[in-house]
Amino acid sequence: MAKHVAVLMGGWSSERDVSLVTGRECSKALKAAGFKVSEIDVGRDIAKVLTEAKPDVCFNALHGRFGEDGRIQGLLDILGIPYTHSGVMASAIAMNKVRTKEVCSAIGIPLAEHKLAPRKAAFAGKAMERPYVIKPIAEGSSIGVRIVQEGDNGPPDEDWSYGETVMVERYVAGRELTVAVMGDRPLTVTEIRPRTGFYDYTNKYTDGKADHLLPAPVPKPIFDQAMQVALLAHQTLGCRGVSRSDFRYDDTKGEPGRLIFLEINTQPGMTPLSLVPEQAAFLGISFTDLVSWMVEEARCDS
After folding, report:
1. Domain membership of residue 197 as a residue range
2. 226 in the same domain as 100
3. Same domain? 154 vs 45
4. Helix (H) and strand (E) counts for the chain?
């Protein structure tokens, strides 16, 4: 009999819409691979729904809070249903940008200066010397990210709903790089070039808003360092399955420049515009093979 895979998608986080796209794309590929697939738009009755559905595996296509911060992972551990991506601890640490930096700093990964600050001080431009970046402590997909530049009055905060304490990070000039890790294998380095602004939510999920260059046209020492650091972060946090690490490469003063680790994503997007499937395809791994591998690698925390 075909393995029964429940694709968990949607939910109620700020990344619901992206999760639905990820879930539908993964469901389509899993069906093509011969799995029996149930698509589940996750609600707060998910434990009851899964108990009745009795899947062999859950493909976790959720993004944002509850879906990638360790909570759904803990529930699936309790239910005894193997699931894709990282387990409770790795998910919880990676979702929290401050905790991720603490772990990465301890093993010598190069980071930008950062601090916690009250929201009002950060948006007023008084959190640290400008330019700096304002980030929610625990959101993904660049949701809520703002850049405070020299000479401006600070970005508006009327639509801010991500807490009264924020992380502010020294702005690093240069280029955006990313590396996917599949198991214990870093795939390649992609340079992301937004056509306007920075790589925010709109540029990530709107076709034609950003160009992806792979392999990234960077010096070999930087390329190799990005691959090594992505794997190191993946292993140190205890990630499994697929992850994606994001970097800034500052070559504004010439080569070789410096590489700065930004964050690791334990639930990277799997949409038609997503970076992980693109890197896998570059290496000859089809989308169907990628998601099938993720299902076969699924497990609970031991």
Report:
1. 94-110+173-285
2. yes
3. no
4. 10, 12
Annotated catalytic, 99?
A: no
Count of the separate structural domains present in the chain: 3
- What are the pLDDT digits (tens) for 129-179? 999 999 998 876 577 888 998 877 766 666 777 888 999 999 999 999 999
pLDDT one-digit tens code per residue, 201-227: 444 444 557 899 999 999 999 999 999
- The one-character DSSP state at 145 is -
Q: Is the pTM of this model over 0.70?
A: yes
Q: For residues 82 and 225, give the distance between their C-alpha atoms in angstroms, rounded to a whole number.
A: 33
Whether 77 is in a domain gets the answer yes
Task: Give catalytic status of residue 15 as yes or no.
Answer: yes
Which of 256, 279, 89 has the alpha carbon at shortest distance from 186? 279
Q: Which of 11, 125, 144, 269 is catalytic?
A: 269
Measuring CA to CA, which residue among 263, 148, 205 is closest to residue 19?
Answer: 205
State both tokens at 291. 């998601």
Active site residue 269: yes
Which of the residues 11, 13, 15, 245 is marked catalytic?
A: 15
At 246 the three-state DSSP class reads strand
The region of weakest confidence among 68-72, 178-182, 194-198, 212-216 is 194-198
Task: Exactly one of 10, 263, 274, 292 is catalytic; name it.
Answer: 263
Q: Which of these is catalytic: 83, 171, 205, 249?
A: 205
> Is 244 assigned a catalytic role?
yes
CA dist 69 → 95, 196, 235, 266, 292 (Å): 5, 30, 17, 9, 23
**Among the options 141, 243, 245, 292, which is catalytic?**
141
